Amino acid sequence: MTSAASIAIEDTSDVVAEDYWAKKGDVDLYMHRKYKADSDTPRPVLVLVHGSSQAARTSVDLDIPGHGEYSTMKTFARLGYDVWTMDHEGYGKSSRTEGYSYILDGVEDLKAAIPIIEKETGQSQFAFFGSSSGALRAGAYQNACPERVERIALSAFPYTGKDAPSLIKRALRLDEWQATNSRQVDAEYFKAMVTRDIVGLTVPELPEIAAAAEMANGGGSVPNGTYIDMCINLPIIDPAKFTCPVLMLRAEHDGITTNEDMADFYAKLATLDKQIVQISGQAHNMTFGINRHRFWHALLSFLEMPARLDSLQA
Question: Which of 85, 79, 8 is nearest to 39 (CA)?
Answer without folding.
Answer: 79
